[in-house]
Amino acid sequence: MAKGDDTLQKKKNKAIRKRNNRSSSALSVKVSAAIAAKKRRKAGKRRLCQGMCYSLPTLEDPFNDRHGKEDFKTKGSKKKTLPMKDETVPLIEKDASRRKGSLDVKISKKSYHLEKENESDKATDNLGKECIITSESENTEETEMEDDLHGAQQNHREISEFPSKFVFWCLSSIENALREGDAYTDGEGNSLFANSWGLEFSKCYATGKDVMETSGNSATNEQIAWVLSGAADTFVGKELQGLSFSSPFLIFLVPSQEKATQVRKVCKPLKSIGIHTVSIHPGASLDHQIHGLRSCEPEFLVSTPERLLELVSLKAIDISGVSMLVVDGLNAICSAGHSDTLKSIKKFISGNPRLLVFNDCFSHTYTAMVQYLLTGPICRLSLNNSITSLSSCIIQSVEVFTSEDKLVKGIQTQHPFWSGRTHNSKLLYILRKDVKCNKLVKNLKSKGCSISLDSESVDSNSRVSVVDLERILTTDIGVYDVVVLPSFVPSMDSYVQILTKMARQSVSGVLHSYLTKRDTELAGPLVEILEQCGQKVPPTLKDLQNTSNMRED
User: Fold this and answer.
1) Which tens digit of pLDDT belongs to each residue from 346-391?
2) Cα separation, 160 vs 141, whole angstroms
3) Domains of the chain by range and CATH?
């Protein structure tokens, strides 16, 4: 009987297996066993049957039950990885008596995990270069979220010039919300992370000084997003330290209801981390707003000045403990007659809140208002390199005299400086070597002023200094609030350079210039700069300009 196909295939496969085994194993079983035993002997490992003849009893194993083997070690718990979806957990439980009807402050686990990662991360600066930011602490195993938050309360990170990861998380949430609502105005291909204004604002905000924005425009959605993200970062940091607030942390003053709606829309994504925002304006009834403020105490408050002052007068809200005040559209607010309202609001705020003023007016008319709001040292913020932007809140005083009268006037300029300025203000005289000012220099030396006509550097500790015009490029004139030009500069380029580099840390800058008939050719360009910056043009300078025009004709 013929064999079936299956039987023939099995026989064929068996022959193939034998042939493969013979070719792959060149050594016999006996030789292979000897080689394996030698390897175990050199490695210090024996079989169970060889244990007693190799290992000795120890104190830990007196009966040699383990045969010299080490204890079985379990692997440590793996590090927890980030969840794919954001999970919110309570950050700090708020006192129910302090807030009625409010939710617990919640924060994204993903965002705080990113904040606590200790590794080098890449970010893009305003020049498009990549900079590496390395966290200060060493890498540690991640535990439960409660332990992370407890550790953050003890070792909260210090403010750095570069934005924190939490700021970027807030920016990402705001940007996604704005793109969904078609409210993003910075272009489809651009991102808030690479916004040059925002990166510059972060550097100014990290200094702890008040900020004056002098671009000449009202705040855009992108600028509002950076301001709110920085404020949210500071607020959450203080909450982690155990601080509580009975007043709103931030007040954002706007000139109109439309602007209040715009700012409120940018604030909405921050609700997921427990930052509630309330918008109050004349477009809603007063009773409705009072009821809303009593039911939920907001962390951020967006309001028009007149409605906020009305609610404060009715004791519907307490703003005495406000930590940050933002004034947007100062020109529109003052033009509507609310200058006194701004002053009253600031008086109701006790302490020393951080201020950010969007100065959208270059006229000297509202300089006094800016000086009332910003009393301390400031940071100037502007991506507009125009003369009007860089010289904002600097008064340009121009007078025309004869040479003798001009010298006497230059000396007298020093007297109101001593009586009317604070001890932090500084005065700088800029002289020209080709114009004799011996009497002025002698008078200044008698008063103990620092004379640096021939030296390379200026004494930074002296309140009144004298420097040669040729050394302006190497002198930091940004620390001087008052600059006097007893002899006017020979070119307008030098004048513009002095105007745009002085008083960088103050809103009380004054530039005194004294002209004579020999400066007739510079009268016309000087008048143009004064009119461009919204400054007063004295009649004597107009006459000097007319004289120059008559000579040209």
Assistant:
1) 999 998 999 999 988 777 778 889 999 999 899 999 888 899 999 9
2) 25
3) 165-176+195-386 (3.40.50.300), 394-550 (3.40.50.300)
